[in-house]
Amino acid sequence: MRPGEIVAEGLAPPAGPVLRFVGRIRTPWGPGECPKNIGKARETGRGARVELDPAFAPALLGLEIGQPVVLLYWLHEARRDLLRQSPRHIDGTRGTFALRSPNRPNSIGLATVRITALDGAAGTLGIDAIDCFDGTPLLDIKPWLERVDLPPAP
Amino acid sequence: MRPGEIVAEGLAPPAGPVLRFVGRIRTPWGPGECPKNIGKARETGRGARVELDPAFAPALLGLEIGQPVVLLYWLHEARRDLLRQSPRHIDGTRGTFALRSPNRPNSIGLATVRITALDGAAGTLGIDAIDCFDGTPLLDIKPWLERVDLPPAP
């Protein structure tokens, strides 16, 4: 805990739906080596892979090399009880919902990446880069769509 | 089920982490009225609201009116066992991971919206529009960041 950080006290255990891991993200990054954000991961020039559980390989039909996709994954080492955080890279304290920190009530990571390779039979994708640990559990792949995923005009 | 759709047979029950609902999304849309996508929701000119559980209101600190944010939410009426789907609006069948259908192994919805109002004490946000039912459970709010959330150049 750093100065200014606030923990949610007395929260009941989570009681919502149960997640299903559909595969793993294979990256070059072990503990202590992970780039701080996806931009820095891209600067390394090192790609990554998605390995689906074989049962889910048929769900890749229609994806294509070159296409951007959104990956959702579970940051299994993160805290789920922090309401306000004081990250090293900013001055002061911010609410968890104003940060991209892995520490959040539901530790779901979100990355927008480009498909660089695809093997539908094996259930694997190559992706340009990502900033998560090797072995991170995958929750979802969604096609990135400009008309849906760009913010509306101000 | 429509022609060409494939169900994952013999899946074990989900056994991953348990989600925590942190609030609800209040929208004008009941069953049978929901716009098909966020573009059509915007065309109606009708906004929506996020109501956090009071325990999570402190986590809004640092968000600002006008800022784009990503909402993650749980589509609680969706199927979780479809590998391939034949939506009415496309020809033929596609894998679930090539579609934005609510039916997916983890029924997590993703919307990029703009904050139109903010009450940090009450734990509420106004948002420009969204295409989900009134009462949809909220999982997360993340700041949308151009350097993170735009796809990389091809």
From TrEMBL, chains A, B:
<comment type="similarity">
    <text>Belongs to the tRNA methyltransferase O family.</text>
</comment>
<dbReference type="InterPro" id="IPR036413">
    <property type="entry name" value="YaeB-like_sf"/>
</dbReference>
<dbReference type="InterPro" id="IPR040372">
    <property type="entry name" value="YaeB-like"/>
</dbReference>
<dbReference type="GO" id="GO:0032259">
    <property type="term" value="P:methylation"/>
</dbReference>
<keyword id="KW-0808">Transferase</keyword>
<keyword id="KW-0489">Methyltransferase</keyword>
<dbReference type="GO" id="GO:0008168">
    <property type="term" value="F:methyltransferase activity"/>
</dbReference>
<dbReference type="Pfam" id="PF01980">
    <property type="entry name" value="TrmO_N"/>
</dbReference>
<keyword id="KW-0949">S-adenosyl-L-methionine</keyword>
<dbReference type="InterPro" id="IPR036414">
    <property type="entry name" value="YaeB_N_sf"/>
</dbReference>
<feature type="domain" description="TsaA-like">
    <location>
        <begin position="19"/>
        <end position="153"/>
    </location>
</feature>
<dbReference type="InterPro" id="IPR023370">
    <property type="entry name" value="TrmO-like_N"/>
</dbReference>
<protein>
    <submittedName>
        <fullName>tRNA-Thr(GGU) m(6)t(6)A37 methyltransferase TsaA</fullName>
    </submittedName>
</protein>
